[in-house]
# Entry
Amino acid sequence: MGKIRWYILSNFFKTFLSLFIPLFLIISLVYVVKIATLTTEIEISFSELIEIFSYFIPIILFYTMPISFMASVSSMFFRLSSDNELVALFSLGIRSSYIIKIIAYLATLLSIFLLFLSIFIVPQSKSMFASFKETKLSQARVNIVPNQLGQKFGNFYIYIKSKENKLLTDVVIFNASKQGEQIFIAPKGEIRDNNGLFSLLLNSGRGYTYNDNRLKEIDYESMEIFDYINYKNISFSNALDYWSQAQHSNNIRGRLLFFIFTSLMPILSLYIIVSFSIINSRYQKNRLFLVIFSVSIIYYLTAILIKQNANETLFILSILISIILSFYLFRRKIASFY
# Structure
């Protein structure tokens, strides 16, 4: 039995890797193109490009592994059936249920891994990407160019004579509103970054305010102006706190149900796929692509409907129907013959 288990597993992993690696690379290329579009908004170095891509790896794995698994199972059993290798195993007294259990263990492990990936890792990586992007956008907004008019910092228009890193010289900022006009001048200034909240610190300067036909003049030793307008506080405590919002948010609840259902696809679809993939090559046609396409489309459309409706009843009903249909088809088409 050990040799049979190893034989089935080796065939499966060869098939799985031959499908998973190309699919992973194709989806990765799509995300690389998506990342490249960010360069129109922010400057990204090669190391930052790698960092951003690492944030997308969990979601790429989540989408590619279930469909790779389903395609691998169908492809493997069709091939073993066409080569009469399964017939040889059945003639030796090996039950079809034993062979399927070998793959069922893998399907269970994969579903557990996908659940962990989608529930714990994906939300965190998404938050890290959003935080990274917002930080880079904030840096781009405060990238003030010397001797150039029309630049803004918060509500203020700003002009500087020179700049070295974050140190500014001969700073002039101006703001006009319904309440009046303000202008502040300082020989030196500095841009500060406090976890994404940027501020402008002016030293030993002078300010003028004009309102109600009155001009006021002040001298200041230091003044700090914060850019609250463009500040976005992106925080993520932990996955459990994030998903607990599903009680009050249909969007988050729909995503949670979608992730769980998609994670369960390997184990839910296994017996259905096998029921149409183990064939007698003399009397039955090889419908490999039809089986893979049909099963994948049905399950992913169901997952999308569950996500859009955020309906627990539809979620539970879909799982129950899948389980009942799996055992019915397997017993009728496979177990009663092999």
Observations:
- The chain has nine helices and six strands.
- Residues 145-226 form one domain.
- Strands lie at 151-153, 156-164, 167-177, 180-194, 197-211, 214-226.
- The CA atoms of residues 66 and 266 lie 6 Å apart.
